[in-house]
């Protein structure tokens, strides 16, 4: 195996024996083979589109396939074997449609030479494992082309997750779906120069903004606009079910099926912002958030005492002490962990097993009490836009610091807590994603009623931060996004953060600080391009960065 797609890649170079995330080498190789076949489908998909053939089911399959290979989503070899088989069948059916249409249109057989991923086939599982070893990241020998191809692929994985979430709520875009195939096909094209690949990567940022806007629309049109909310972090006396991940539809169906059953529902990690949606507030048994970000689950799932529903990333390989209480659903999977099947058309998923399980469990052990504030998504912030603009104009707010992104295990991430603590009283933190758990329980006060930590929601809600920046531009008459009093100090971990980063670059944002380390998949030359064109920089010390952020260097 060789994997370097996340921030915790071993030695910031790559995992080669087993993933720091717990991914086995066999799983990594099967994931590589799945990506390889998805690229093969995309080679045909791209060509088919040119002659007017588009298949939504195949597009959705590609999105789910990409999503399932994001860090901490699926650890189950059997699932990847099943998906590789399905992928080969999708590829061949699309190929046949394309070949027939081509012949009908041009009166001759299609005879262009195609890359191997468009033609390779096997139904032998041993061969899957073997082939997976050959077709991973290191198959591209040139370090810079490899870096660009992977940067592109990881951006596409992030977009795929947004697309899948939006699709479940009835929002879709042929343009975004098609771009997943265009981007994947570009990674197979040996004739593309580094400059041309960079062009596709920047377009990925543009499509990421569209995908994020689509997901925002899906969420807010289904569940209403998040409202500023004090979310309870203590526990109640009844048995509970803990819901983690990002999938709001799963939460909705679980809440509906569990009402009046004698159980309470709590959020964990990235599900916290669900507590701020008007739609979910109507459930009396939806009682708050338990614990912190994803990596603390090994301790917090233990003390929760009840069953846990993992709707998406981040799953940490569960300890035996609570493994029987973990349920996965959707694209998530782990060997030996119970999986709740997908919904059938027109029906809900069946959460009865997890509800019955909860009733046999002790209530959660309290680990903290009080509340945390969330719900400052775009609508809530824009509803106090006058107040915010006045505070900026009067100098009461000198700086907004976007500290969005991911959390992770590394001790170096204490940087974000310290920076939050040491930011001067006239700085406001804008956040989204699980990165906030480093500092969202600190009391940083407010500026004239505006909290100094504005939490827009999940990493999936980063679009809110874009809308807030654009609204500030409009209100202050600033023409260049970089003239706004906003500084970006992004924490990254997995591939959705890569999509968000590319979105920010597309919007022209310069001077982003990225930490706790720069991605292992960026070669020195690619870093150079990002520094020269976008002034991207790694985080420094808290003291240095504070000065620079506040414009005191
Ligand atoms: Fe956090 Fe993990 Fe949200 Fe990422 S829960 S790092 O995959 O999705 O951000
Ligand atoms: Fe390593 Fe991250 Fe890949 Fe897991 S996802 S194998 S931790 S680089």
Task: Tell me what the structure shows.
- The protein has a six-stranded parallel beta sheet with strand order 4-3-2-5-6-7. Strands 13-10-9-14-15-16 form a six-stranded parallel beta sheet, with no helix packed on it.
- Helix content is 46%, strand content 10%.
- It is an alpha/beta fold.
- The chain starts with 24 loop residues before the first helix and ends with a helix.
- The longest helix is centred in the N-terminal third of the chain and has 30 residues.
- It has three domains: 213 residues, Substrate Binding Domain Of Dnak, Chain:A, Domain 2; 131 residues, Rossmann fold; 170 residues, Rossmann fold, CATH 3.40.50.
- It is globular and about 70 Å long.
- It contains 19 helices and 16 strands.
- The site of FE-S-O hybrid cluster has 15 residues, from loops.
SS elements, strand count: 16
- Bound heterogens, unique: FE-S-O hybrid cluster, iron/sulfur cluster
* Radius of gyration, CA atoms, in whole angstroms: 23 Å
- Residue share in helix: 40-55%
User: Approximately how much beta-strand content do the residues carry?
Assistant: 5-15%
Q: pLDDT average, as an integer?
A: 97
Ends distance: 44 Å
CATH top level of the largest domain is Mainly Alpha
Please give the domain count.
3
Shape: globular
Unreliable residue stretches: none
**According to CATH, what is the topology of the largest domain?**
Substrate Binding Domain Of Dnak, Chain:A, Domain 2
Given helix and strand content, the structural type is alpha/beta
Can you name the CATH architecture of the largest domain? Up-down Bundle
Please give the order of strands in the largest beta sheet.
4-3-2-5-6-7
The tally of helices reads 19
- Largest sheet: number of strands, sense, barrel closure: 6 strands, parallel
């Amino acid at each position: 195996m060789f994997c370097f797609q996340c921030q915790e890649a071993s030695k910031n170079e790559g995992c080669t024996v087993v993933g720091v995330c717990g991914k086995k080498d066999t799983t990594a190789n099967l994931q590589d083979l799945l990506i390889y076949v998805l690229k093969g489908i995309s080679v045909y998909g791209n060509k088919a589109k040119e002659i007017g053939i588009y298949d939504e089911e195949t597009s959705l399959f590609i999105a789910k396939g990409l999503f399932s290979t994001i860090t901490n989503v699926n650890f189950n070899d059997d699932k990847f074997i099943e998906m590789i088989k399905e992928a080969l069948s999708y590829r061949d059916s699309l190929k046949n449609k394309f070949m027939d249409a081509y012949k009908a249109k041009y009166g001759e057989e299609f005879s262009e030479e195609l890359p191997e991923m468009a033609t390779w086939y096997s139904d032998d599982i041993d061969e899957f494992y073997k082939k997976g070893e050959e077709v991973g990241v290191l198959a591209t020998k040139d370090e810079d082309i490899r870096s660009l191809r992977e940067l592109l692929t990881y951006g596409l994985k992030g977009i795929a997750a947004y697309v899948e979430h939006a699709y479940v709520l009835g929002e879709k875009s042929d343009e975004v779906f098609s771009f997943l195939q265009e981007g994947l096909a570009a990674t197979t094209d040996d004739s593309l120069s580094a400059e041309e690949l960079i062009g596709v990567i920047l377009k990925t940022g543009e499509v990421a903004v569209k995908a994020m806007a689509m997901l925002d629309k899906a969420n807010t049109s289904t569940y209403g606009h998040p409202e500023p909310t004090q979310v309870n972090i203590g526990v109640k006396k009844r048995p509970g079910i803990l819901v983690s991940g990002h999938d709001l539809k799963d939460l909705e169906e679980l809440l509906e099926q569990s009402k009046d059953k004698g159980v309470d529902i709590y959020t964990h990690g990235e599900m916290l912002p669900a507590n701020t949606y008007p739609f979910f507030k109507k459930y009396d048994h939806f009682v708050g958030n338990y614990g912190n970000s994803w990596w603390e689950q090994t301790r917090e799932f233990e003390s929760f005492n009840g069953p846990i529903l993992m709707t998406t990333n981040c799953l940490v390989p569960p300890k035996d002490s609570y493994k029987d209480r973990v349920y996965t659903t959707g694209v998530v999977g782990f060997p030996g962990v119970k999986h709740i099947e997908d919904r059938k058309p027109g029906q809900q998923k069946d959460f009865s097993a997890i509800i019955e399980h909860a009733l046999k469990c002790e209530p959660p052990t309290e680990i903290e009490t009080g509340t945390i504030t969330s719900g400052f998504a775009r609508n809530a912030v824009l509803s106090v836009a006058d107040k915010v603009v006045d505070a900026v104009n009067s100098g009461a707010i000198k700086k907004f610091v976007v500290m969005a992104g991911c959390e992770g295990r590394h001790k170096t991430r204490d940087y974000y807590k310290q920076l939050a603590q040491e930011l001067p009283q006239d700085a406001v933190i804008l956040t989204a994603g699980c990165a906030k758990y480093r500092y969202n329980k600190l009391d940083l006060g407010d500026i004239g009623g505006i909290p100094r930590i504005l939490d827009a929601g999940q990493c999936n809600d980063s679009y809110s931060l874009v809308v807030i920046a654009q609204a500030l531009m409009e209100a202050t008459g600033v023409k260049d996004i970089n003239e706004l009093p906003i500084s970006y100090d992004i924490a990254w971990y997995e591939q959705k953060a890569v999509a968000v980063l590319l979105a920010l670059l597309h919007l022209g944002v310069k001077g982003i600080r990225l930490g706790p380390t720069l991605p292992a998949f960026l070669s020195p030359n690619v870093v150079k391009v990002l520094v020269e064109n976008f002034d991207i920089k790694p985080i420094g010390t808290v003291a240095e960065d504070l000065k620079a952020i506040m414009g005191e260097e």
